[in-house]
Amino acid sequence: MPELPEVETIRRELKPKIINQKIQDCIILRKDIIALPTPRKFCRSIVNEEITDVTRRAKYLILELTNYKKLIFHLRLSGVISLKSCDTEPERFTRAIIKLQDYQLFFNEPRVLGRIYLIKNDERPEILKGYLNLGYEPISPEFDFNYFRERIRNRKARIKSLLLDQHICAGVGNIYSDEALFHAGIRPLRRAYRLTIEETFKLLLSLKNVLNKAIDNFGTSVSDYKRTDGKDGNFQNFLFVYSNEGKPCRICGTEIILKKIGSRNTRYCPKCQK
What we know:
The protein has 274 residues and is an alpha+beta fold. Helices cover 26% and strands 21% of the residues. The longest helix has 20 residues, at 197-216.
């Protein structure tokens, strides 16, 4: 699943190219990709609107439109947003096309799990409660030691599970939770309330550092994720544990272990992580 760094990369690449572009047309090739409103109303409501900004909240990409409208993309497991020339034909997994003055915006989704929403700024639909109830992002100034400590200090859940909780760590998924825990030297199976103040501080710094380095390297391409021009990200070259199960740890040489925590695959080094 594209996480915060991947969606931030998409945002940065899209913004200078599509800002102030007017939406000329909208083609929906798979109706269930539009979660709100109906596909017909969706297209009718965005045509002739102008893109005033491209923003992001956690794993959601947002096109701010004129007349206080927000076009929200949730990529889920395999959604890909790409910019194409005006004469490009739909591809095998193209589910929606938004035609602009100078480009076409393709939303490709092989698994058809990703969704697009259109809302007004003051609307709070129940279907978007996950988006509306997000916590702070670890890269934000608000995500400080006091915020993080208060949300994990009395919790009996495993620390990996809490890092995946979007009410606590908005935008963090499997890749960056595994990597942050490795660099903090904390085993993902640890109960959150057992983390010391020093360990909590190390994990806070690790989360911020890993996410910012991933953004600097255009995200991680280990599965479906592609940048808007079809290129891969680069952060897969810096992974220490994620997707490295069975390989020797780059620090100590111990074999990286794969274990399920809840329903999520988790990788860690049994020697480096306490």
